[in-house]
Structure formats: structure tokens, C-alpha cells
């Protein structure tokens, strides 16, 4: 069937109503929604007694270790609390400050842990006395004592010390060290005084450093362990110290050469989308040289047109660029025929070898410089991650924050790999999805980036012939791929979670492991991908990894950009995710809870990302919404769906919808890192005022399980907000008849008030979002009417040039 362009839903014409969003009083109160366990105060008192004794002992040791000769102007001790539930910032921030002398600095574990600076020691002593009275009453049975109720909210506490601040072993430290600075907005002068003295100290010690003032962090170049320890033990403005190497490639002797290869790129002179390849360089003598933007400006380490990474110097950035610019079909054809490129590549070199230490500050600054020089670039690939996996529910790193901020401020989309788990070979003897229960399979920074798109590896190796990997099917995730590190079930009750809060976003072909013998695995040629080498005399070589899944998805994005150049990057993201499916990736019950954390939204359908057809129409809504507002758009279905005998009554249409938006992230608060709640759903043909009523008053739900894509009614103790959400709906004839062929698409927004201090000055008041809705006729004998008829009954327009080429041979690709 012919390819057809996607359709734009004209927001102003289609919009029916905008009202204030408010939840009905019939909704269950949020504190009743959580499962409250009866507290055993005896055990809590035991814990707090131990914590109190350790606090005083550790405080004495910390004071003994301070170097008085450094003349640091202020000392500020910090306490890390674990609470019985989520800390309600809007209610207790001022109380803790005014009554207890504690200023909130940061929150972790989605609000269940909080770091506080002791600003007033006299008030804090009163706080400790209340804790002591609670201990005496519960453990020593001094029933006449009374204590303040706030003590019951605390599960444990401890003094912040060097072992909590330093995220690595000092004796293994090397290269660059990042110091993330405390946020103390109510006592900023104390911080600036200490920081000024720290700068002098670093100069005296001849430590080369960079101060990233907008993002509140320091980059130190090769400090000794002794100097770093002295800094942390004396300058009380360091929240965390990190020293993690980056890696792009696996060590080992593989990369089998296939054969010399010459490539005839027939459209190298066309005006194609440009993809920024953040990697080890792109070889200007390789087969993709005609697609390389002639610009050597952007490098942190060496010539960006030289790529000597990987075993036998086959390169890493070069094969990544080959996949990003040429895509899956060309690689499936072994690049034998005349090759039609989808994009060009700008080399952004950050490493020579693919391993080692990279200045995150310089890297991100360079990306901003790229956008100044090439503002038309929307798409980047980044297949360089930390070599250390994230712990379960670990908060966002400063590096992730910088990339999310960059994506938001520049309207960009970075395609980031999950990183490879190289232990998978030795840890397994067969394909076992249960392996992903292990924390060591978690993603690596910055794959948790929310504004960008994270890609894991599917086992497919882009080859004709039988599948030769170990996975249960080529669409299944490869064992070396990594899973999201967030497990909300460890934080929230069963009734309070967010099914859309996970990484990766999708999985794509990255190759697989093979059987070396009956009991061991290895990298085997038959399961690997043919890739373009940086060495022209070699041509193609074989390799696997999430590094190669990622540029394939960036290639799809470039195809979308070429077809629809005016679309926002978040719309491109939504189109890709909306096309992905988990249907061919069944997980057994024992691992079913890992499905999204391993496979994301699933394996991508390249065609659906790019095109509609006569039986499947993709509608794109790009609009804005303000805090505390609800927008309603009617979606009208053609009359033939209810007036024609379609051969069945149930499941005649399938609706798949994905919402994406980017946001300006907030540091120091994992729960409110994304402070913007935007949610959507599809409802009955009801008025906006009825849609926000509870089911007790008016039941507006089309299906019992079809609710808001995420829940925003927990205001004081919110769930973390996802900025990518997806839902599916199977439509029966009776559904259309009952609603007179019209459903209501509703989108609502709120901005959380669970923020340290308040939203930064100048924080946006209006929030753009992208909503992609695919409506597909699923009748036995498809009519070929849907695409044309749905335009008649809605305010739609075909996107882009009607005469543009829509004959891309993408629908013939079955991989």
C-alpha cells in the first residue's frame, strides 16, 4: 500500500475548551491512598538512640580532623534524614528552618531522604532534645515525658561525612574529579565565603580547576587523594565527589574483518539533515567520508577526522556515523548497491581511545557551540557512558542534568545508549532474562537523561537469513544491554506509582552473543553486525553493542526530520516511541516486572515512525499548556466505521498515543527534577467539566483501565513525573455508537510546589508538548478509507510537501 504523510491536528481549530484543572472532592484523599503500617515506636526509638549516639561521636571525630590552619571562614555540618514517608517540602521546609535551625539542601529516594544544613546550632540542639525525650519515653518507659510529634516522622538520621560524599575509592582515584556544591539559598553568603577560600586553596596547591558557576560544580584536574580528602573534610559545601571514567568500547580481540568495501553514495551532495556524532572522531578516509561535514572545529582530544579507537583501529565514531547516516536497509544490503544516505555527520570528538576521563564541562560547552554554528542540527548521538552502573534508585548525576538542560534550551535530541554490560558473557551460559534482576545490569550515566532518548540493544544483527543469536527472538533484548535503575515499587505503595517512569525508551538492533560451546557464550560472527571501518583498506568489520543500536534510532529520527523538517524534536521522539511495540517480546511471569525496564516501549517499527497509510493515520498535535489547566480536543471518527459491515464488532480500530515534552530540570531534588506534570487520556464524548469529575459523579472513562497517563492528584506527596507517556485503546463499534463517533482527548498540566525554596526566577509559565496519535483500522478486510475519511471529520492537514518522496523502501524491511 502507498506511503502517506502524517497529519497535523490543527490545535487552535480542534481545541474545544480550556478550563482550570481541579480534582473532584470525591477523589480519595492522598493520605488515605497510601497503605499506612502501624508503627512500632519501640524499634524506631532503638534506631534513633543508636543514630543519636553515633551522631555525637562522628561529629567529634569530624571536628578533630579539621585543619584549623586552613582558615576556612565557616563550618557547616549537615544531617542526612531518612523519613517514614515523603517529606512535604511545601509544609515543612520553613518549619525545619525556623524551628530546628535546619535548611534543606537536597532530597533523594523521591523525597524519602533529605540532606539538611545545620544553620542554627541552638535550635538544632532543641531538635535533638526532642529526639532524646522520645527515646527515653519509649525505651526507658518515662511515660511522663512529652515530645513533639515531628519526631515520629523520622526513621533515622546521620551526620554527613566523607564516606557519603565521595562516590569512589580514594586509592583508585585518577583523572578528573567533579565536586557538586551544596545549594543553600537562604544562607548564600556562607557558601560564597567558603567557596572563595576554596579557590585560594586550589591555587595554592597548584590544582587546575574549572568552576561551572551556572550548574554549581567544580572540575578538578588530577588532585591527589590527600588533597581531595582535605577539601571535603574542611570545606563544608561539597555535596558529592565523583570520579568515573567513560567508556565506549569493549576490550577484547574481536572485530572480525569481513572484506574490503567501496561504497557509492549517490546523494552526498543533497541537503540532508545533519547528525552530531559525539564520539571518537570520524575517519575522513573511510567509506562515509562524502557525508562528513568539513569542519574540524569541535574536538576535546585530537583531530576529529581521525578515528583510531576500537580493536585493530577499526574505529568507534566511524561505524556509529555509518549507521546514523546510512541506516538499516543499506547495512542489510551490505552496502553493495547504490547507497542513498539519510543524513550527514558532524564529527564532535571527545576521546581518542573511547575510554578514560572526559571533561563534562568542556563537552557540554562544546555542544552549545555546535548549536550556535549549526542551529539546524536537532539530532545527536552519544555512545559514551560512565563505566560504573547506577545503583537502584540513584538520583540524577550533574552530567545528566547538564545534558537534559542542553536538550531543553537548544531544542535538541540526543540519542544515548544504555552502555554495555561486558560481564554478561561470563555471568551466563544461556539466554536468561532473570539475569536483569541483578543491580549490575543497571544503566550507566547519562542514560537516565529524561529529555533525551535512551536506546538499548535488541538481539537482531541486521542480516538476511536465520537468526543465530542466543536470545529467544531477534526482537528480544540482548543480555549485554542494560536496564533502567529506577524501581518505584521499593519507594511507593502498590496504589501509588508511575507506570511510565522507566528507561530505556526503546530497543533497536544491536547484535547478540553466541554459543562458543554448549556451556559458554562469546562474541560470535554470526550474531554480530557488519559495520563500516575507519580503515578504508578494511571496509567492513563485525561488532555488537548498544553503541550501534543507538545510531540506528538516530537514523530514523533523521528520516523523520527529512520528511517533516518543521517538527519539534520531542515530536520526533514521540513518533519513534509510538511506533515501538512489546508484542513480540513476551516476558515470563517471573521477569514480567522487568519488561519496561529492560525493553522500554519495545522494538521500533520503522515504517510507522515515518509514514501513515490508507488504513493507518498518524495525527500529530503540537501545542502548549499552562499550569493548572485542562485542554480538551474532540477526536472524530468516520461514519463508515459504524455504518458499514466490517466483518466484526470488537476491535475494529486500535488507537496508540504517545506524549513527550522537555523541561528545564531542577537540581538537588530527585522527586522534582522534573517539576512539570503533563498527563493525557482519551475519554467519552463528555464536556471538559465532566471529565475532571470522579467516577462517582460522572463516569467519563471509555474503558475501566483507561485512566490518566499519570496521576497528578498527589500534590503534597507526588509521584515522580514522567515526560514520556504512552497508552493504547482498542475500539469497538459499540464504543463509537455510544459516543456518536467522537472521543475526547484531554491534556492537563500542573507544576509541583515540592521544590526547595521556589521555582527559579524566569522559570517558564507555558509548556510545549507533543502528542502523537496513531489510529489504525484493524478489520479483517481493511477498507482503505481511514486516512482520507478521518481528514474530512477533523481539522487536519497533511504535513510537509505533498510532492515529497514517500517511496522510501522502509516497509519492505523485516528486521
Automatic annotation (TrEMBL):
Residues 274-588 form the Peptidase S8/S53 domain. GO terms for molecular function: serine-type endopeptidase activity. GO terms for biological process: proteolysis. The keyword Protease applies. It comes from the Bacteria. It holds the Pfam family Peptidase_S8. Keywords: Hydrolase, Protease, Serine protease. InterPro entries: Peptidase_S8/S53_dom, Peptidase_S8/S53_dom_sf, Peptidase_S8_subtilisin-rel, Y4bN_pept_dom. This is Peptidase s8 and s53 subtilisin kexin sedolisin. It comes from Flavobacterium columnare (strain ATCC 49512 / CIP 103533 / TG 44/87).
Amino acid at each position: 500500500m502507498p506511503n502517506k504523510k502524517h497529519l497535523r491536528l490543527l490545535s487552535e481549530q480542534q481545541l474545544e475548551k480550556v478550563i482550570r484543572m481541579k480534582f473532584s472532592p470525591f477523589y480519595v484523599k492522598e493520605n488515605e491512598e497510601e497503605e499506612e503500617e502501624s508503627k512500632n515506636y519501640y524499634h524506631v526509638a532503638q534506631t534513633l538512640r543508636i543514630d543519636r549516639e553515633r551522631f555525637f561521636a562522628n561529629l567529634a571525630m569530624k571536628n578533630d580532623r579539621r585543619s584549623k590552619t586552613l582558615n576556612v571562614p565557616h563550618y557547616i555540618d549537615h544531617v542526612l534524614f531518612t523519613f517514614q514517608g515523603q517529606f512535604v517540602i511545601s509544609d515543612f521546609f520553613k518549619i525545619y528552618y525556623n524551628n530546628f535551625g535546619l535548611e534543606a539542601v537536597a532530597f533523594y529516594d523521591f523525597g524519602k531522604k533529605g540532606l539538611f544544613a545545620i544553620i542554627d546550632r541552638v535550635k538544632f540542639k532543641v531538635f535533638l532534645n526532642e529526639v532524646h525525650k522520645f527515646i527515653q519515653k519509649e525505651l526507658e518507659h518515662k511515660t511522663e515525658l512529652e515530645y513533639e510529634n515531628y519526631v515520629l516522622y523520622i526513621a533515622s538520621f546521620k551526620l554527613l561525612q566523607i564516606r557519603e560524599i565521595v562516590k569512589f575509592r580514594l586509592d583508585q582515584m585518577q583523572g578528573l574529579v567533579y565536586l557538586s556544591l551544596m545549594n543553600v539559598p537562604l544562607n548564600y553568603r556562607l557558601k560564597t565565603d567558603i567557596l572563595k577560600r576554596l579557590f585560594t586553596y586550589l591555587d595554592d596547591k597548584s590544582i587546575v580547576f574549572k568552576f561551572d558557576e551556572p550548574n554549581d560544580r567544580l572540575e578538578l584536574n588530577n588532585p591527589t587523594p590527600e588533597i581531595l580528602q582535605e577539601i571535603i573534610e574542611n570545606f563544608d559545601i561539597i555535596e558529592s565527589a565523583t570520579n568515573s571514567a567513560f567508556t565506549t568500547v569493549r576490550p577484547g580481540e574481536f572485530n572480525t574483518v569481513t572484506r574490503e568495501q567501496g561504497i557509492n553514495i549517490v546523494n552526498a551532495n543533497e541537503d540532508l539533515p545533519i547528525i552530531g556524532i559525539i564520539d571518537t572522531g570520524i575517519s575522513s578516509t573511510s567509506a562515509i567520508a562524502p557525508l562528513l561535514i568539513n569542519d574540524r572545529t569541535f574536538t576535546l582530544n585530537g583531530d576529529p577526522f581521525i578515528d583510531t579507537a576500537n580493536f585493530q583501529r577499526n574505529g568507534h565514531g566511524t561505524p556509529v556515523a555509518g549507521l546514523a547516516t546510512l541506516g538499516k536497509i543499506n547495512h542489510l544490503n551490505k552496502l553493495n548497491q547504490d547507497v542513498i544516505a539519510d543524513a550527514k555527520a558532524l564529527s564532535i570528538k571527545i576521546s581518542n581511545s573511547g575510554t578514560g576521563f572526559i571533561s563534562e564541562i568542556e563537552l557540554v560547552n562544546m555542544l552549545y557551540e555546535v548549536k550556535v554554528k549549526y542551529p539546524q542540527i536537532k539530532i545527536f548521538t552519544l555512545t559514551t557512558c560512565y563505566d560504573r552502573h547506577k545503583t537502584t534508585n540513584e538520583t540524577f548525576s550533574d552530567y545528566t542534568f547538564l545534558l537534559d538542560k542542553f536538550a531543553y534550551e537548544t531544542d535538541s535530541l540526543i540519542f544515548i545508549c544504555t552502555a554495555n554490560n561486558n560481564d554478561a558473557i561470563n555471568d551466563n551460559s544461556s539466554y536468561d532474562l532473570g539475569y536483569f534482576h541483578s543491580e549490575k545490569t543497571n544503566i550507566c550515566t547519562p542514560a537516565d537523561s529524561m529529555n533525551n532518548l535512551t536506546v538499548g540493544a535488541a538481539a537482531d544483527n541486521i542480516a538476511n537469513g536465520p537468526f543465530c543469536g542466543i536470545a529467544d527472538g531477534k526482537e528480544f533484548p540482548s543480555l549485554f544491554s542494560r536496564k533502567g535503575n529506577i524501581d518505584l515499587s521499593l519507594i511507593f505503595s502498590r496504589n501509588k506509582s508511575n507506570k511510565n517512569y522507566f528507561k530505556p525508551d526503546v530497543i533497536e538492533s544491536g547484535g547478540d552473543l553466541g554459543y562458543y560451546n554448549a556451556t559458554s557464550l562469546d562474541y560470535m560472527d554470526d550474531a554480530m553486525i557488519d559495520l563500516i571501518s575507519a580503515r578504508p583498506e578494511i571496509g567492513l568489520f563485525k561488532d555488537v553493542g548498544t553503541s550501534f543500536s543507538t545510531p540506528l534510532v538516530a537514523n530514523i529520527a533523521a528520516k523523520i526530520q527529512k520528511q517533516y523538517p518543521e517538527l519539534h524534536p520531542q515530536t520526533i521522539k514521540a513518533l519513534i516511541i509510538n511506533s515501538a511495540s512489546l508484542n513480540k517480546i513476551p516476558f515470563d511471569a517471573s521477569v514480567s516486572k522487568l519488561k519496561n525496564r529492560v525493553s522500554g516501549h519495545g522494538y521500533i517499527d520503522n515504517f510507522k515512525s515515518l509514514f501513515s497509510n490508507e488504513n493507518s493515520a498518524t495525527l500529530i498535535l503540537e501545542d502548549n499548556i499552562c499550569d493548572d489547566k485542562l485542554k480538551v480536543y474532540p477526536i472524530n471518527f468516520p461514519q463508515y466505521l459504524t455504518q458499514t459491515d466490517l466483518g466484526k464488532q470488537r476491535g475494529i480500530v486500535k488507537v496508540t498515543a504517545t506524549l513527550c515534552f522537555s523541561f528545564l530540570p531542577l537540581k538537588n531534588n530527585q522527586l522534582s527534577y522534573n517539576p512539570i506534570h503533563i498527563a493525557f487520556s482519551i475519554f467519552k464524548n463528555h464536556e471538559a467539566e465532566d471529565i475532571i469529575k470522579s467516577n462517582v459523579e460522572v463516569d467519563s472513562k471509555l474503558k475501566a483501565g483507561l485512566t490518566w497517563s499519570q496521576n497528578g492528584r498527589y500534590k503534597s506527596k507526588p509521584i515522580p513525573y514522567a515526560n514520556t507517556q504512552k497508552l493504547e485503546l482498542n475500539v469497538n463499534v459499540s464504543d463509537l455508537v455510544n459516543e456518536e463517533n467522537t472521543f475526547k482527548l484531554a491534556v492537563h498540566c500542573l507544576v509541583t510546589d515540592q521544590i526547595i525554596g521556589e521555582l527559579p526566577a524566569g522559570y517558564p509559565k507555558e509548556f510545549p508538548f507533543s502528542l502523537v496519535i496513531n489510529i489504525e483500522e484493524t478489520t479483517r478486510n481493511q477498507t482503505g478509507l481511514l486516512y482520507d475519511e478521518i481528514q474530512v471529520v477533523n481539522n487536519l492537514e497533511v504535513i510537509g510537501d505533498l510532492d515529497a518522496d514517500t517511496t522510501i523502501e522502509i516497509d519492505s524491511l523485516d528486521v
